[in-house]
Automatic annotation (TrEMBL):
Keywords: Amino-acid biosynthesis, Aromatic amino acid biosynthesis, NAD, Oxidoreductase, Tyrosine biosynthesis
Protein name, per record: Prephenate dehydrogenase
Organism placement in taxonomy: Bacteria, Bacillati, Actinomycetota, Actinomycetes, Propionibacteriales
SUPFAM superfamilies linked: 6-phosphogluconate dehydrogenase C-terminal domain-like, ACT-like, NAD(P)-binding Rossmann-fold domains
GO BP, sorted A to Z: tyrosine biosynthetic process
Amino acid sequence: MTDTTADDALPPLVGPVEVVGTGLIGTSIALVCRRLGIDVVLRDTSAKHVRTATGLGAGRVATGVDRPQLVVVAVPPAAIAETVVEALQRTDAVVTDVGSVKSAPLAAVARQVSSADLARYVGSHPMAGSERSGPLAASAALFDGRPWAITPHAGAGAAAVGLVESLVVECGAAPLRMDPAEHDRAVARISHLPHLAAVLVAGRLAAAPAEHLALSGQGVRDVTRVAASDPALWQQILEANSDAVLDLLGEVRADLDALMAAVSAAPSGHGGPDLVDILARGNAGTAAIPGKHGGPARPTRSVFVSVPDHPGELARLFGDAGEIGVNIEDVHIDHDPGRPVGLTELVVEKGRAEHLLAALESRGWTTHR
Ligand SMILES: NC(=O)c1ccc[n+]([C@@H]2O[C@H](COP(=O)([O-])OP(=O)(O)OC[C@H]3O[C@@H](n4cnc5c(N)ncnc54)[C@H](O)[C@@H]3O)[C@@H](O)[C@H]2O)c1
Ligand SMILES: O=C(O)C(=O)C[C@]1(C(=O)O)C=C[C@@H](O)C=C1
């Protein structure tokens, strides 16, 4: 894997950019391009999605005479290869796709186009998204600071690779060049297995007694968020990467057996050494996840603030944090049923938390230490 990039050496993205698939990812990319003043043309098998995306200001409906500089294919995984082939044959543009799996679509495209056309195709994959689908979930800020894999094949043209990297940089993401097969093994571990773990945990909730669910706190929400994603999309992702996913599931099956043995061996339910080793391995895994901006994760601390449930109060809290000079790394908002306040958790750099607490209190905010 290579961290790129010398921005000034990249070919400029001037457009038009054609986006095929105006869902969450396609419309988000289109919004970024429009913000840069680039002409964006939109295509989708769903006329409703194109209408919604144009209504959001993401671009205009494609015509028969557009000459795109770049085509971005943002359709579901099973439709990627045929859509990339169609774009390579219909235009003379550079073509990228944003699909979650890279090797299988590349192999299918390579079987169907000439090597000259294949040189204009460069796969990519933004590591940003949501459990929501469709254009209404889109945001121009979706890719800010996120990794975005670029997975050129051996015959890809240098200018085509550079143009795709320009798109990634313009979207505010961090480009990482990777071999397609290595990419697929990586996402099996850092995206597909976590998704399946969330699904298994959330599946245990589906028919749970109401009095169990009434106790739900942040832990279960943190672990299950992505399980709310579109099952049809994820079926296609997992089928396209089944070998790498199955290898990991086999390892997890062995881990589960070890975990069950450790729990049952624990003296009077208090956890013996094996159990604590397994739990500590989880600590090591979470510590290994790089921080939002790459490199090791910076230690953070949560600052809890009560926010009155009135229009403008959250904006005032964020404005105050900005004036105090503390960067908010993440935010969670919990509503207290029956009370006109929300509990807002601001995740900030650990060393800045005390300063933020004191400064917010001096401005009249109710904090929880
Ligand atoms: N959802 C995520 O978090 C995420 C993140 C990174 C990459 N991806 C990848 O991006 C791609 C799009 O995912 P999404 O979340 O935006 O899905 P989405 O369902 O929000 O959007 C997909 C869009 O493609 C359209 N479409 C379907 N078949 C088409 C076809 N043959 N031609 C033209 N349009 C077609 C649909 O109508 C829809 O508007 C997928 O390949 C997915 O693997 C998703
Ligand atoms: O944040 C989320 O909701 C996601 O699931 C995003 C996520 C991921 O696993 O990180 C999911 C699938 C995509 O291929 C890329 C990104």
